[in-house]
Amino acid sequence: MKNIYLIGTMCAYLLAGCANQASHTGHDEHEHEVEAHDHAHEGHEHEEHEGHDHDHEEGEHHPGEIIFKKEQAEAVGLRTQKINPSSFTEVIKTGGRVQAAQGEESVIVATVPGVISFGGLPVVDGTAVRKGQAVLSIASNALSEGDVAARAKFAYETAKKEYERMKSLVGDKIVSAKDFEQARLNYENAKVAFEAVDGKQTAKGVSVVAPLSGYLKNIQVKEGDYVSVGQPIATISQNNRLVLRADVPEKYYSELPMIQSANFKTPYDNALYRLDDLRGRLLSYGKSSDTSSCYIPVTFEFDNKGAVIPGSFVEIFLLTKPLDNVLSVPVSALIEEQGSYSVYIHLHGEHYKKQLVTLGAGNGSEVRVLSGLNPGDEVVTQGAYQIKLASASNAIPAHTHHH
């Protein structure tokens, strides 16, 4: 009976130990499964997150694209233009000079000898004058010969009296016809000299008046200078019509008959002047080069509606034969870098791309594009330089992965 009880107790202990071990083993396996599940879930989320970001990046940007925000575009006044084939002209680019047209200028000369005296009118280049207006005075009362105006008046009155006296005697043959003719000649000469200064005497001397309305230029005297009769003092230019003289190299001689019009730029402003807008016309072109140079002159005449200065040297674009189906871009669209030219193409939205182009001749406002653009490309015409600055910071490089 005692042995049976002992065996039963041992069996109970054995059963309890097996149950405890099984419970512990199951619990460990469950924890391992939970940890494996959590790790797999984290890996899945990590891969999914990386894959989502990668797809988003590739969907938004492409290599070489430049992002220029809408707010930036509005701030700089960005403008674009679709480039399509259109008419253009062959261009001969050269230099030349603007000159006054015939009859548009007059030279003021000294009417009497004496010393220059300026009045209230500022005698400087650009001063506006009216026809008949006194420009300056010439005083001769301090000269050894005496006052010219006074001497002219006295000589005229004396010659007139002598002429009238002989006129009454020549009919009675008291004086010879020869003496009478000499008296008449003396009177006429004295009259011309007197009328040249009559009514122009002032306290400062004899006034010199403007022969036409216009602007003073080429002032050749200063206060206190002595001048003789006929000496140039200044030039009055009306500036209504001007002449454009282009100096064309001899290699373009065969193309001269095809010249239709011209555009030109001055060194003192950024404006482009078109002869078509200024009632310009071709006057002539030389049939041979100048003896002192290798250039052939081509001359135009045009209205001076702007502030073009006669005598200034200008950059000239001669327009010759027309061309069809030509791609061209405005000069403002070009970006120059070490001799190479490029433009910026608007792709979509806020996305732009830099495009190298090969250029042909330009007419001052537009330049012919030989390669690099296709019909329909939308080119930035205003604000290209600002995009260039922005591209230094937000150009999108090619996408790469580092593992």
Key attributes of the depicted protein:
403 residues; alpha+beta; seven-stranded antiparallel sheet; six-stranded antiparallel sheet; disordered C terminus
Helical content stands at 25-40%
Rg over C-alpha atoms, rounded to the nearest angstrom: 47 Å
Q: Mean of the pLDDT scores?
A: 80
Number of β-strand runs: 24
Oligomer: single chain
Given the C-alpha coordinates, what overall shape results?
elongated
Tell me the series of helices and strands, N- to C-terminal: HEHEEEEEEHHEEEEEEEEEEEEEEEEEH
Strand order, largest beta sheet: 15-14-18-3-13-17-16
In this structure, how is the largest beta sheet organized? 7 strands, antiparallel
Runs with pLDDT <50, length 5+?
Answer: 14-59, 395-403
Q: What do you see in this structure?
A:
The chain is an alpha+beta fold. Helices cover 30% and strands 35% of the residues. The chain has helices at residues 2-60, 70-76, 148-170, 177-197, 384-394; strands at residues 65-67, 79-82, 86-100, 105-109, 114-118, 128-129, 134-139, 201-202, 205-209, 214-217, 226-227, 232-237, 241-249, 261-265, 272-274, 281-285, 295-303, 313-326, 328-330, 335-337, 340-348, 351-362, 366-371, 378-382. A 7-stranded antiparallel sheet has the order 15-14-18-3-13-17-16, with no helix packed on it. Strands 1, 19, 20, 21, 22 and 23 form a 6-stranded antiparallel sheet that branches. A hairpin with a 6-residue loop joins strand 14 (261-265) and strand 15 (272-274). The chain is elongated and about 115 Å long.
Summarize the structure.
The chain is an alpha+beta fold and 403 residues long.
